[in-house]
Amino acid sequence: MLTKVFAPAKVNLTLHVTGQRRDGYHLLDSLVAFADVGDRVSLRAADALSLEVTGPMAAGVPADETNLVWRAAALFDVPVAITLSKHLPAAAGIGGGSSDAAATLFAMADLTGDKVLPEGATDLGADVRVCLMRQAARMQGIGEQVAPIAGLPPLPAVLANPGVDVPTPAVFKALTDKSGKPMARKLPKWPGVKGAIDWIASQRNDLEPPAIATAPVISDVLADLAALPGARLARMSGSGATCFALFDTRDAADAAAARLAEAHPEWWVTPATLT
Ligand SMILES: C[C@](O)(CO)[C@H](O)COP(=O)(O)OP(=O)(O)OC[C@H]1O[C@@H](n2ccc(N)nc2=O)[C@H](O)[C@@H]1O
Ligand SMILES: Nc1ncnc2c1ncn2[C@@H]1O[C@H](COP(=O)(O)OP(=O)(O)OP(=O)(O)O)[C@@H](O)[C@H]1O
């Protein structure tokens, strides 16, 4: 039996860094949504664990035990042959590895019938827990506290990545002010897409300045996204380098994505709906 699970891109609509723990990990307050674009994990029972990485963004992604998909599957007793079809850029702030790991955990649970996640599952990455949620959520602590958020309307978006790898630890290291204000304790009720975008625009991604210091091209991506017709807001996701713009309608996002892709054929650009 072949089990297939979609691994959506994770987008940090907001990302406030509110402190740092003694062990170096940072305290976050983030509104996270998921895109209708992503990777695909498929697996079947086999004699030994194996992984093949395919798809348009497979270049450079490890196909060995360092891949989070492999590590997630290895937590179970059943050996499987896995195919990971990469459509998302890696080391890009959209949770590729974490989302792939979460999808693998779902697929393995489906295959084995196990109802409880194996020990170590959520230690695979800071974003794995939120990626297991697969719906808009508020993420706090170092990523281990996640709560679903109701009432966020589907948000039309363009995602753009300039092709530079931005390693997450380097960005956190370059962050100077680690005590940003959190989001309001109670998130507002959003009156439709326009109101939600207005509110998101009033929040921040505190990792933008240190990511731009690490990879200055990110400021070009943000400027080009903000200049697209109909763009209401441009912001970076996670630790970068992927940035997103939000639009009032999916038609506007589709047209803007086509325009940006034409201007920057060397960038990864896609329209998406975030939920
Ligand atoms: C920045 C975010 O993308 C926001 O969603 C995530 O918190 C990062 O998630 P991730 O890539 O799955 O992160 P991990 O692979 O667990 O951590 C990579 C590195 O980022 C730093 N890190 C990560 C999460 C966190 N709350 N504080 C940190 O300081 C640590 O140096 C860690 O070694
Ligand atoms: N399934 C995977 N897909 C992509 N990269 C992976 C995967 N498993 C392990 N890696 C390794 O992890 C590194 C980080 O990739 P990933 O796509 O998880 O980025 P990220 O920027 O840390 O995501 P985020 O910060 O949004 O959680 C890559 O450079 C790659 O070598």
Describe the structure.
The protein is an alpha+beta fold and 275 residues long. The chain has two domains: 3-145, Ribosomal Protein S5, domain 2 (2-Layer Sandwich); 151-274, GHMP kinase, C-terminal domain (Alpha-Beta Plaits, 2-Layer Sandwich), CATH 3.30.70. Helices cover 28% and strands 28% of the residues. It has helices at residues 68-73, 96-112, 128-133, 168-174, 192-201, 208-214, 217-226, 250-263; strands spanning 3-12, 16-20, 26-45, 50-54, 80-85, 137-141, 145-148, 155-161, 233-236, 243-246, 268-274. Strands 1, 2, 3, 4, 5, 6 and 7 form a seven-stranded mixed beta sheet that branches. A hairpin with a 3-residue loop joins strand 6 and strand 7 (145-148). Helix 4 (168-174) packs across helix 6. It starts with a strand and ends with a strand. The model has no long low-confidence stretch (mean pLDDT 97). Bound molecules: 4-diphosphocytidyl-2-C-methyl-D-erythritol and adenosine-5'-triphosphate. Adenosine-5'-triphosphate is lined by residues 61-62, 66-69, 84, 90-98, 100, 127, 168, 238-239. Residues 12, 15, 25-26, 28, 30, 93, 98, 125-127, 142-143, 168-169, 172, 238-239 line the site of 4-diphosphocytidyl-2-C-methyl-D-erythritol.
What secondary-structure arrangement, pairings included, does this model have?
Layout: E1 3-12, E2 16-20, E3 26-45, E4 50-54, H1 68-73, E5 80-85, H2 96-112, H3 128-133, E6 137-141, E7 145-148, E8 155-161, H4 168-174, H5 192-201, H6 208-214, H7 217-226, E9 233-236, E10 243-246, H8 250-263, E11 268-274
Parallel strand pairs: 4-5
Antiparallel strand pairs: 1-3, 2-3, 3-5, 3-6, 6-7, 8-10, 8-11, 9-10
Helix pairs in contact: 4-6
